[in-house]
Design goal:
Layout: E1 2-6, H1 11-22, E2 26-31, H2 38-44, E3 48-51, E4 64-67, H3 84-92, E5 96-98, H4 99-108, E6 112-117, H5 122-135, E7 141-143, E8 155-156, E9 168-172, E10 177-179, E11 182-185, E12 194-197, H6 211-223, E13 230-234, H7 238-245, E14 251-255, E15 262-267, E16 270-275, E17 278-284, H8 290-304, H9 310-317, E18 328-335, E19 338-345, H10 350-366, E20 374-378, H11 383-386, H12 394-397, E21 403-407, H13 415-419, E22 426-429, H14 432-442, E23 448-452, H15 460-482
Parallel strand pairs: 1-2, 1-4, 2-3, 4-5, 6-9, 6-12, 7-9, 12-13, 13-14, 19-23, 20-21, 20-23, 21-22
Antiparallel strand pairs: 7-8, 10-11, 15-16, 16-17, 18-19
Helix pairs in contact: 1-2, 5-8, 5-9, 6-7, 8-9, 14-15
Length: 496
């Protein structure tokens, strides 16, 4: 089968392309601004990528066009279609389907699907669960909205069971809509036997009117779980309690709250797992933050549904390497007065920004470096943030950072006004060059530069590294000229 994927560089559609290629299909695809890391992964798999959505791609004559939810019937200011290929597909009566529908029919049918849903932590928890099952010898298939470091790829089919059992497949279950012609949430297509509901907050303001609308979709997901299935739910979330109140037809396991089935005692990097009050495992790993501790409990409870004991799951988590773009160290700049560390993180929702900062702070405290500063560098890039729906939460989200720097290019709301409650600890930049200059002027040895965005962020990490090194070289040269005996480590900032 030849499939041509529209919007192939998105994390979900790129993973779908990898699965289709592994299954032996011929795969091609197109996107606007073909971009890494997915473009690199796809080209390595031998998948041909086309820039843009030109109508002449209809001549490829695939067996089916698989449509990503980035595609719409929208038109530009001049009235021309933004996606002329989609218009040509409709005019020609060509066969097309959505990504989730194709995945459900071609890959997930007949498997034991473990779906991880929630506003935050989906990618990390999905990767954890896949790694636990891998460690236990189950060789699961998976599709993750990122690149798990333990696997090096975002998706694979897994080893098909030969004993008549259902092959496990772990999938990140997004509540975003399926396609312009199917406004149901993606996860309704997956029909999981094990469903994880990590948390639930308002998000995706471009498609949901309010939190109740998202809760309704989560309820629809629960309607698809069979009676022999298991639903794993964060017991700390009132919104999920409301979802459960609408109806539950499967086994329930809870985590996180004092009265939950699975709880944790101890530091998030070294904690005991309790099942109904009895110690069953101990997790010791490198991940920081209470949010990752909760992610681990969710993964343990889900894996147990497939017979993986908590002790074995905890052993697997000790070697869990997380996902790219989750507090990922992108560069270190060594200076005479100390090291500046530059991180990349996918956080973009205010709650995720706050928990990411908190996780890094806890790590520094644990390592005996509580005095080192965290500089939060972020861009409100998601559709929800671009609309300004959550701008009032930004000062709260950034509370744990010593300084904050916001890339506000393209926003229709006043980021400076939104950040005013931070009392001068926040700066706003209209472009990446200005942002980099602001950070370099404020940075000093020992700082942690935490870059947060759900996009490429203009390669800000590499640009910060180069600018910091250049600024230090220039400053050190000036200092040498003025006073060859000056103690460089006493200089408070790089840009001074």
């Amino acid at each position: 089968m030849h499939i041509h994927i529209l919007g192939i560089c998105g994390t979900f559609m790129g993973g779908l392309a990898a699965l289709a290629r592994e299954a032996g299909h011929r795969v091609t695809g197109c996107d606007a601004g073909v971009y890494p890391p997915m473009s690199e992964q796809l080209r390595a798999l031998g998948i041909d990528l086309i820039e843009g959505y030109a109508a002449d791609q209809l001549a490829l004559r695939p067996d089916v066009f698989v449509i990503g939810n980035v595609v719409s019937r929208a038109r530009g200011p001049d009235g021309t279609p933004r996606f002329p290929l989609m218009e040509a597909i409709l005019d020609a009566g060509a066969h097309y389907t959505s990504g989730p529908q194709w995945l459900s029919e071609q890959v997930l049918h007949g498997r034991h699907v473990l779906a991880v849903a929630g506003t935050h932590g989906k990618t990390t928890t999905t990767a954890m669960l896949a790694w636990i099952l891998e460690w236990a010898g189950r060789a699961p298939g998976f599709l993750v909205g990122g690149v798990p470091r333990n696997f090096g790829v975002s998706a694979r089919l897994g080893r098909l069971a030969t004993d008549g059992s259902r092959t496990p497949f772990v999938i990140e279950a997004d509540e975003y809509d399926t396609a312009f012609f199917d406004k149901r949430s993606k996860f309704v297509h997956y029909r999981p036997r094990t469903a994880v509901l990590n948390n639930l907050e308002f998000d995706h303001a471009d498609i949901f009117d309010d939190l109740a609308a998202i809760e309704r979709q989560f309820h629809h997901l629960l309607r698809t779980v069979p009676p022999s299935g298991r639903v794993v739910v964060n017991g700390l979330e009132e919104s999920l309690a409301r979802v459960l109140h609408r109806g539950l037809w499967s086994e329930l396991r809870t985590f996180g709250a004092v009265d939950s089935d699975y709880t944790a005692e101890g530091d998030p990097q070294d904690f005991t797992v309790l099942r109904r009050g009895a110690a069953v495992a101990r997790v010791r790993w490198d991940l920081a933050g209470v949010h990752n501790q909760l992610n681990a409990l969710a993964a343990l409870a889900a894996a147990e549904h497939l017979g993986v004991a908590p002790e074995a799951a905890a052993e697997a988590l000790a070697s869990f390497a997380n996902v790219r773009r989750r507090l990922e160290v992108r560069a270190t700049v060594a200076l005479p007065g100390g090291v500046i560390t530059i991180y990349d993180d996918f956080a973009h929702h205010p709650t995720a920004i706050r928990t990411t900062i908190d996780g890094l702070r806890r790590r520094l405290i644990r390592e005996g470096r509580p005095h080192e500063r965290i500089l939060a560098i972020f861009e409100p890039r998601s559709n929800t943030m671009k609309l300004g729906t959550m701008k009032a939460q930004l000062p709260w989200a950034l509370e744990g950072a010593a300084l904050a720097f916001c890339h506000a290019g393209g926003l229709d709301w006043d980021a400076a006004a939104a950040l005013a409650p931070m009392d001068g600890r926040a700066q706003v930049a209209p472009d990446i060059d200005t942002l980099v200059a602001q950070v370099v002027a404020a940075a000093r040895p020992g700082d942690h530069l935490l870059c947060m965005s759900n996009g490429a962020f203009g390669d800000v990490h590499a640009r910060l590294q180069a600018a910091l090194q250049g600024a230090w070289t220039d400053r050190a040269g000036r200092a040498s000229t003025r006073d060859a005996g000056r103690d460089e480590a006493s200089v408070p900032t790089i840009g001074s």
